[in-house]
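re: ur question from yesterday

yeah so i grabbed the chain u mentioned. its 122 aa long if i counted rite. heres the sequnce exactly as i have it in my notes:
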Amino acid sequence: MACNQKKPRIDCAVDATMSIIEGRWKTVILCKLHINGPMRFSKLIKEINGVSPRILTKQLKEMEADGIVLRTPYSTIPPKVEYSITDKGRSLGPILSAMAEWGLKNVFNNKVQFDESINLTQ
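ran it thru and got these structure tokens back, copy pasting raw so excuse formatting
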């Protein structure tokens, strides 16, 4: 069930935000779509190591229902569908950047660094 169809678990605005981005692959999906632009399902599944087709489909549907990802079907043979970030999804950029910065300082101080030259709010 999409976040906009259920109440947050607690009376906290942070929980409302977390209910949109929680899920093992949602932030990864947002980063891939931001970096690569619109992507087909087959390209996303190749780009995200370890995600199953069933889980990717489920998370994309939830993100679409929450208005942060747009699914665009094309009437071609064979059928084609692309996923892209909506303006609402791009508005999560500063939040994701802040979370990445916190993770670098407090968890992965010797691991992956978020490329701050990528502006998710554009």
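noticed a couple things. The first strand starts at residue 39 and ends at 40. also The chain is about 50% helix and 10% strand.
anyway ttyl
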